[in-house]
Amino acid sequence: MIRSVFAVLCFLLLHIGAQAFEILPGDSLNHQEITEQAILNATVQACRSLAQTEGTSFNNPAQPFTAEGVAAACGASQSSKAFRQAITSIKLRNIRVDIRYALKPSFHFDEEEFVQGRRIITDGMVAVKADNRMGNYETAREKLGEIMHPLQDFYSHSNWVELGNTLPNSNLIKAETSIGNIADQNRATCRSCVGNDCTNNILEDIIAGQILTSGYFGLLPFVSTKPPGKCSHGGSVDQTSKIEPTGGINKDSFQSSHGHLHTQAANLAVAATSQLLEDIRLAAGDLPFLQMVGISRGSSKALCFVTDTSKSMSDDIEVVKTVTSTIINIEVGTENEPSVYILIPFNDPGFGPIIRTTDATLFKDIVNHLTTTGGGDVEEMSLSGLQLALTSAPFNSEIFLFTDAPAKDKDLKNTVIALIERTQTVVNFMITDSVVTNRRRRRNSNLLQTRAISESDAQLYRDLAQASGGQAIVVTKAELPVAAATIVQSVSSSLVTLLQASRDPGQTDSFTFIVDETVTNPTVYITGRSLTFTLTSPTGVTQQSTDSTGSLITSSETVGNFITVRLLKQVGQWAIRMVSNNPYTLRVVGESSVDFLFDFVEPSQGPFGGFDALDTRPKAGASGTLLVTLSGSDSAAVTEVALVESTKGSEETLGVVSQGSGNFLVQVDVMPTVEFVVRVKGRVQGSATDFQRQSPTNFRASNLTLTANSDSILTAGTMTSVPFTVASTRADENITIRATNSRNLDSTFPTVLLVESGNSTNGTVTLLAPLSIPSGSDVILTIVAETPDGSDTNYIVLRFSVVNLLNDFTQPACQLLSMQSGCVENCSLSAWVASVRVTDGDSGAGVERVSLIQGTGVFNTSLEAGNENVTLVSYVASCCAPVMQLLVVDRVGNVGTCQFTARVSGSAAASLSFFLCLIIMGFGQLLLSGFMK
Ligand SMILES: *[C@@H]1O[C@H](CO)[C@@H](O)[C@H](O)[C@H]1NC(C)=O
Ligand SMILES: *[C@@H]1O[C@H](CO)[C@@H](O)[C@H](O)[C@H]1NC(C)=O
Ligand SMILES: *[C@@H]1O[C@H](CO)[C@@H](O)[C@H](O)[C@H]1NC(C)=O
Ligand SMILES: *[C@@H]1O[C@H](CO)[C@@H](O)[C@H](O)[C@H]1NC(C)=O
Ligand SMILES: *[C@@H]1O[C@H](CO)[C@@H](O)[C@H](O)[C@H]1NC(C)=O
Ligand SMILES: *[C@@H]1O[C@H](CO)[C@@H](O)[C@H](O)[C@H]1NC(C)=O
């Protein structure tokens, strides 16, 4: 677990698995494994709780829990990719703490920084809860991973276990409580170990007095900050452990100074992480919590439209309305129901506001009221609208942008590409080509020329579509309804990409793809003009595109530049030969539960090894690492990963090292210098054929590097500085900088930075979130660095959550106003009544939610007359259910519970009279006890 003490080469570390994903029996548990176990545990609890609320049954998945097993038990197998993605995202943020904050004691509960460490956790919890309230789940995940790290380290780095504790310290997730009896700064806590034996190095009076301490840590010899008599972390990297008192107390692994307590520490870390997640769940509610971990009822996909609303667009908007209705009518309640609906209108000069809802009916209603306005110009703010969509849709979504006009905000191109690459989103453009006619007619009614959107304007949309693996479909307004049929398939929860390629300029080329047993509805989408193709099936049968009577194509449709070909399902390797001199794109999709996801990661140069997720393009010409995760099958394995050059098709196959739990590390010797896609082949156990999947997204490496490291919380009303560094392996150059943020916050940044070859230059972006922005709003900052000749670009994408300063750390409280009961031994003869007042204190944010979590009685809430901050609860239950427990949550997500119990007393006669009292005057005379927790 936690800090590995092997001072070996970082890459070696990736492979020996000291901090990697390996789970070998008897091996130590690391942060990733602790985190995954806790998430699986908490997800099972959330699904069980949801089933209970809804009166449905829930069957525990088999032990040990796996992501697939848990998703299936939750009835959400189709969410398994999103679930995997959420788990990976949380884990990568967790291990980043060891890389970015290796020497900050508070992030590891080192050096007795208990108060500071707890502060990191509780401040982070406020942000996570606020993010969840606003539906900003990706931002919540990142913060959650970061705060899990110190929470888990506490059990390894402090003497909590040595003090004999067998339960987590639940006050680490509650601000303003007592963490325990923390050792005085001057108090000695350790003695030197006896040789390598550190089993008894904590002083007896520390143990006897139940005094908390933790180890000191330092990398530099002779400059220790360890006060006399204090414990060290321990291990060969920690130089403080060589100074009296020598040795250490950490329980990171079995080999650690206190390795004999590793298992207890790791198990407590799992339990503490589960507790943290449970608190987050109670604050959010079961469904939002499940969405945070990537589990949704329907598809994990969004239905996302970005649409031009200028006057000439009325036909197109009718199509948006029809498609929305179609999808909502056929998909609501099915596993293909979009998890969120997003609509972003744009014209000129405006764009937005964004509409994002999980309510299908509301969305349909809003779309149906969409009207056209303005847009006097020829150009519209399409990329601004697209940027907003890319920062609001879940990762791996598919976005449809409708327009008949060129982009006015072309300078956002690289920002949009950065967001496409970071979120692996597919962007499709639905371009209707009567624009110039209509628009010119408005301004000059004599000019009735019919012309399509110009070639160079269309090129921008083509470039963006191609970068994302989507299509730029150009059709007439009359043809649009046919082209829009593709949108229906795009929301399928199980849509997978088998092949995606493009050639610009066009050239004759052959491509292969595999249809495996799990794939249904194989479909080929092509954009391009004047092209023909020949398909060859696995059995060698061929069919030309011009041949309407063959057996391979079950249906084919061409509108504008867009061709849809549905294939006969035949398992095995297919080939398609494309013949055209014009640019074209080819995309082969199908539906299957088996898919993959991946991140670029970078081995850490720091003392603890491990790897960090990249928020940027990888380094051109250097080695690189991919973390590939399979979803949809517990028994699938990767057999081959290749980077395929997007324009030429040449490919490099890579070495794959399994890390267990469906994770694979893939080593790239030299990152390609041109655009590439990632292709994965694998095999599901027992299957006769390999499967082949591809990232739709096209990636690039860069000779520029961007790094930034800042807190991910923006305090409203306070200016936040985000320092960043640009470095280059190119000649000395003035690099252009552009920083954009998804909420248009006031921001400053240097527009040009001189970057000298082999040196780096620092810059700062400032952001100011106004007080009017609600807590939990996310801000996505994209910093783009571009060379003067435009040939190379890199970027960094950072997510922040806004927290409005509100120091409410106290949970809401319950006050029992009255309790009456006629409970007697024969409980079915009697009932009890309680009346409870719930408040959030004078300085609290106010009560948000009160729910019944135990008890079968009739439960009602109302607001106190004249005081919205007080919730009144009335409860009537049979005496056979004498316990009731309330969950009370305030508006910042502080969670409390209150329990009341009816006591048996009186006689049958009394209970009968109590019944009469209840009926006649509401409340009787009998008072019973209750207690609060
Ligand atoms: C699972 O979560 C529950 C609730 O937080 C906790 O009590 C339990 O210890 C967890 N299980 C494990 C194995 O940590
Ligand atoms: C990076 O630099 C190398 C060597 O100068 C060059 O071949 C390559 O094209 C550059 N890559 C990019 C993405 O500019
Ligand atoms: C960078 O810009 C400055 C100011 O315009 C100019 O003086 C300098 O020569 C430029 N440096 C390079 C390497 O282009
Ligand atoms: C790198 O840049 C810094 C700041 O401009 C400068 O002080 C330093 O001398 C430069 N180093 C090299 C090797 O050029
Ligand atoms: C640039 O920033 C890094 C990281 O914050 C810092 O270590 C370095 O000293 C800075 N360099 C200059 C020249 O200011
Ligand atoms: C309790 O009361 C119910 C209803 O009067 C009666 O049917 C039942 O037999 C009683 N049970 C006992 C144990 O007295």
Comma- or semicolon-separated keywords:
disordered C terminus, 25% helix, eight-stranded antiparallel sheet, binds 2-acetamido-2-deoxy-beta-D-glucopyranose, globular, six-stranded mixed sheet, alpha+beta, 933 residues
Which ions, cofactors or small ligands are bound in this entry? 2-acetamido-2-deoxy-beta-D-glucopyranose
- What percentage of amino acids are in beta strands? 25-35%
- Main sheet properties: 8 strands, antiparallel
Estimated structural class: alpha+beta
Helix percent reads 10-25%
Distance between the termini: 34 Å
* Uncertain stretches: 1-26, 435-451, 907-933
Radius of gyration: 30 Å
Helix run count: 18
Number of DSSP strand runs: 41
Broad shape: globular
Whole-number mean pLDDT: 87
Strand order across the largest sheet: 19-18-20-23-22-21-24-25
Structural write-up:
- The protein is α+β, with helices and mostly antiparallel strands and 933 residues long.
- The strands form 9 sheets. The chain has an 8-stranded antiparallel beta sheet, covered by helices on one side. It has a 6-stranded mixed beta sheet with strand order 5-4-3-6-7-8, with helices on both faces. It has a 5-stranded antiparallel beta sheet with strand order 9-17-11-15-14.
- Strand 14 and strand 15 form a beta hairpin.
- Helix 4 packs across helix 6 and helix 8 packs across helix 9.
- The longest helix has 24 residues.
- It is globular, with a radius of gyration of 30 Å.
- The two termini are 34 Å apart.
- The N terminus and C terminus are likely disordered.
- The site of one 2-acetamido-2-deoxy-beta-D-glucopyranose has 8 residues, from loops.
